[in-house]
Amino acid sequence: MYNPPVSQSRIMTLPARWPFDVRRLPFFYGWAIWLLSTLGFLMSVPGQTMGMAVFTEAFMDAFGLTRTELSTAYFFGTMGSSLFLTRAGRWYDRHQARTMMAGASVVLGGVLLFISAIDVLVAGVGASTGGTLAFGLILLGYFGVRFSGQGVLTSASRNVLLVWFERRRGLVSGVRGVFVSLGFSVAPLLLAMLIDATGWRGALWALAAVVGGGFALACLVAVRDTPESCGLFPDGVSAEQHAASPPLTVASVTLEQARRSPVFWIYAAALSMHALFGTAVTFHIVDIFDQAGRSREEAFFYFVPQAVVSTSVNLVASTLADRMPLKPLLLIMLCGFVTGAFGLANLEADWGYALLIAGFGCGGGLWGVLSNLAFVRNFGRVHLGAISGLSTSLTVFASAVGPVLFSVGVDLLGSYVGAVWLCLGLNVVLLAAAVVVRQREPAP
Question: Is residue 133 packed enough to be buried (19+ CB in 10 Å), middle (13-18) or exposed (0-12)?
């Protein structure tokens, strides 16, 4: 008899058959979970850097803050949120995806409403303390959107899909990544249009209604935590098919056991390095290209070929990941980051620009694969929330440090080259460590 993995710390959740029994549907419900997982990523846009960045100019005018003050508030809000994401991962293991996705959506919507009222709150205080209060309130708002959006909602949306598929995890995650990448790429333009049409406050209200109202309700009604809780098997196979050819799974370990594993740290460090380096380059992209003698238009156009390479690599690697160990993909990803960093250090040359696109595009595509599969494949399903939560915490922390590191590099050395070479060196160290660390991942 098949005994599915069940977290011992799980508490009561909504009945799996409420408000409908998914077994009566004419298709495998994992595909509905795929759709909800994809939407969950897209609903997290207000908590992502590209989502909040669109509101920067409006926030500066409305709250009376300088660009530096707003950036500092974003830095501390992001860093603060990273400190609680491991605990949020433990909440996921207890409450599961249905509750966490709905709850995170409600919180994200509430925080967006809070941000929309900051100028009103500040106006009631007076000019003498208004600036300090505005800084503190937007810092709290940034903490809320980063924690609930980039942190909890994104992690829960990622994890729920991993338990509904086993043999095709890589493929379904890769296809989701294509739609998420497309959505993230057009989100700034759509948000800018929404702000032009309704004003920044109206745009926040609309986002709060869609995320905190509509999507939260959809999660409560349609999300199901696991196929086993619904009387189904992963990948939609029958009981007879599963008994005849059970998937090879790894024994689940606790967060404490994962922390003692060098495998966890090599993946977590590699994923965090991408967040640090990638966020820093994105944040300073115009100035970086300007120092290399390249135009603002070239800086923004860089994301187009980079996205093409990243999406293509993600699709190919996601398909291959279902049939091979992950370590070769980890090594190729780190080689891509080293290549991209070397290209960035020589951006004034055309071959440097080409290496930047190829290296970061390849590395970014593989990052999408490994961030989905590394922890469930190496440490199992039962404590996936806590283990992936710790990795997410490190990743978010690194994304806060990256832009500051590059800014300090410019202040001390007059250019970004020193910070780029530092990141290149750290990637080389990670690559060497990844070669040495042994992985006992079961064959797919």
Answer: middle
Two structure tokens written together for 391: 């990795």
Categorize the per-residue pLDDT at 60 as very low, low, confident or very high, splitting at 50, 70 and 90: confident
d(CA 22, CA 31): 11
Q: What is the crossing angle of helices 154-164 and 384-413, to 10°?
A: 140
Q: Name the average pLDDT for the chain.
A: 88
Mean pLDDT of 417-428: 94
The residues, ordered by sequence, that sit 6+ positions from 160 with a Cβ below 8 Å of its Cβ are 33, 36, 37, 40, 97, 101, 223, 225
**Length of the chain, please?**
444
79-127 pLDDT, tens digit per residue, is: 999 899 988 988 999 999 999 999 999 999 999 999 999 999 988 776 5
Which pLDDT tens digit goes with each residue over 362-419?
998 899 889 888 988 888 888 888 898 899 889 988 988 888 888 888 888 888 899 9
Contact criterion met (CB below 8 Å) for 77 and 143? yes
Give the contacts of 77 (CB within 8 A, at least 6 positions apart).
138, 139, 140, 141, 142, 143, 144, 145, 146
255-436 CATH pick, 1.20.1250.20, 3.40.30.10, 3.30.420.10, 1.20.210.10: 1.20.1250.20
Spatial distance between the Cα atoms of 87 and 141, rounded to a whole number of angstroms: 20
Comparing CA positions, the residue from 249, 282, 138, 301 lying closest to residue 204 is 138
Tokens read off for 58? 């409006």
Helix axis angle, 127-145 to 56-63, nearest 10°: 150
pLDDT tens, position by position, 73-92: 888 998 999 899 988 988 99
Query: pLDDT digit string (tens) for 36-47?
Result: 999 999 999 999
Check: pTM over 0.85? Answer yes or no. no
Q: Enumerate the domain spans of the chain.
A: 27-244, 255-436
Distance CA 90, CA 152 (A): 11
Homologous superfamily of 27-244 in CATH? MFS general substrate transporter like domains (1.20.1250.20)
